[in-house]
Amino acid sequence: MAPQENIPIDLVPQIWTNWRTKKTEGLPGIMMFLWALCGVPFGVYSVAQNFNIPLQVQPHCFMALCLISWVQTLVYHRKWAVWKASVVGVAVACTFAGVETALILTLRPLYDDGKDVPIFVVGVIAAALLAAGLLPPYGEIWKRRGRVVGINWIFLSMDWFGAFFSLMALVAQNTFDILGGILYTLCCALEVGIFSSHLIWMAHTRKIRKDAAAQGKTFDDIAAEHEASGIPFKFAERKSRKDRVSKVEDAGTDDTENSAGGNGSAGTPLGRSTDPERITTTKQEQ
Hints:
By secondary structure, this protein is mainly α. The chain has twelve helices and no strands.
């Protein structure tokens, strides 16, 4: 299988966007973790076969950038303390390094003896993890009815071009690497799907966004107004079961508090006051 050809710095725009906006909503943390994890078998694959130095360094740079982005999702989305997320990130990196070292020491002698199957299996696992990392964004897309949020377009474009040119390089070779071709084709197709979904969403919401801009509002403002007033909105964000249950519980709590606060003195039996001084005054008058 051909080595991974993603541009090592393609994640820098995404990391910068996460840091600048201080939020990672719409960027699945599992996507970044799977991509970081795929760096382990890709590193084993390239080092064990003694590829040239740039190809050996590339998967490790990619893994490091993915781990940084994953730690950002812990801090900005899951609201972890920076020190806690950093410690977890370093611990995961050390674990990955230990596993990769052990695999290289185990598989390299086998490869040198002409046994290619173990390395081939490692390559398949790496390719599967890389492709699987592009599936979680589709859950976010479904949730937002086609809208793509939180993913930097420069990062996605660079990643797509990396996969596309890698595929073209395979086509230009004397022998076509089927496994590598499948990997790069899947990556290109999944990323084109992400682009297409957002473009379709923009076409469907063009009038809404135009009217909102005329009022000095955003699409999110319009969606929030519909939700607050209880008016159905075609492009409202789909809520998970957990969010729906939490909303119902909050509504029940508010109703209980309003009922108790609104009744006042009438909340006592027959609407009678429980103030001792008032009760005493009333008895004297009688």
